[in-house]
Design goal:
43% helix, 15% strand, 10 helices, TIM Barrel, single chain, alpha/beta, four-stranded parallel β-sheet, 212 residues
């Protein structure tokens, strides 16, 4: 998969809903119920971060949920790419980007949303062919104002900002011309997951959809 083809695919994903849930899941047994709750609420694109021992099993379980599109986040190495694809991930997300990681994703035909934090990083990814990127960590990098400033001279790049985004500031990002969606964990808080309150998570998803 070429970087250009990858960007076409990731742009389609970003346009399906204003929020991509960023999920850190420790128990694969609740994965399908959680995915169904989020999809029911209007958020079909789900990012499962590879930050727990259960993450790959979670991806495998969520990949079976009708209407869901599950990807793997926190991809750092070629091995992560291989394992994510084998688990059923349909896209990948990385906090930053290296040639080694991108080479692996392209060879595996895995659409990537690579991370960039600066203008130089965004330009380098664009030069390689990635016109859809993750702005991370968004709030720590100056928030929506910084993303607006970075985007002004690089209008060719579309971003999905992630990191520190909540209902309080999501609209600030979504109002930017260079932003199609945001990534956030607030739609699936750990307390509601632990309580298995799927109706409440569906409601949060619905509220997230209403941000635009």
């Amino acid at each position: 998969m070429t970087p250009q083809d990858a960007s076409v695919e990731t742009l389609k994903l970003c346009e399906l809903a204003p929020v991509i849930p960023v999920l850190v899941i420790h128990d694969a047994s609740i994965a399908q119920d959680l995915a169904r709750a989020l999809v029911k609420g209007g958020l079909p694109v789900l990012e499962v971060t590879l930050r727990t021992p259960a993450a790959l099993d979670v991806i495998s379980e969520m990949a079976q949920v009708e209407g869901g599109i599950v990807g793997a986040g926190t991809l750092l190495t070629p091995s992560d790419v291989t394992k994510a694809v084998a688990a059923g991930a349909r896209f990948g997300v990385s906090p930053g980007a290296t040639d080694t990681l991108l080479d692996a994703a392209e060879a595996a035909d895995l659409p990537m949303l690579p991370g960039a934090a600066t203008s130089s990083e965004a330009m380098r990814l664009l030069e390689r062919g990635y016109s859809v990127q993750k702005f991370f960590p968004a709030e720590a990098n100056g928030g929506a104002a910084a993303l607006k400033a970075i985007g002004a001279p690089i209008p060719q790049v579309t971003f999905c900002p992630t990191g520190g985004i909540s209902t309080k500031n999501a609209k600030d990002y979504l109002s930017l011309s260079n932003t199609r969606c945001v990534g956030g964990s607030w739609v699936a808080p750990q307390a509601l997951i632990d309580a298995k309150d799927w109706d409440a998570i569906t409601k949060l998803a619905q509220e997230a959809c209403a941000l635009v």
